[in-house]
Design a protein that fits this description.
By secondary structure, this protein is mainly β. It is 3% helix and 43% strand. It contains one helix and eleven strands. The strands form three sheets. The chain has a five-stranded antiparallel sheet with strand order 6-7-2-10-11.
Amino acid sequence: MYYKPYRVYAANDTATVRLEDEVNRYLVLRKEKGTDKALYFADDNYKVWKGEYDDAGNFVNAVEITTGLGEIFKYDLAKKKLVMHIPDRNAGYRFSYITDFAKDVEKNASLENSVALIEADKVVGREVRVSHQVEANVWGSLKDMNYNVLQIIKKKY
């Protein structure tokens, strides 16, 4: 997900800017084991790059931010939203984070999330919603094979 400033913020402007992403119950964020709110920052779970936009609107000159991720990414347990605080409101950002399927997701469930830009505790513009239907298909074929037992084992990761 990308953040592109929609206006220039003056140095004396104290408005905070953040993105809020709400996922439905079939998607889960990666958190520390044994906790419901501490995000797990290892590997590629949560990443952010600071950059700028060229005249064509492309995100360029990106530099990965590797420190302070716990101040940028926060989980709001009450609202069940991932909050991404924008450190420099006049810069562009690219955010990347991994979500997993919840244990109870099943075929035909709808995976949904919505993202809003919040400035000084008010939604700016419109909220963006994304939805995807879960599909599960298995197919196999055996020809002229002699076997005594055929087992199909589902593993949970």
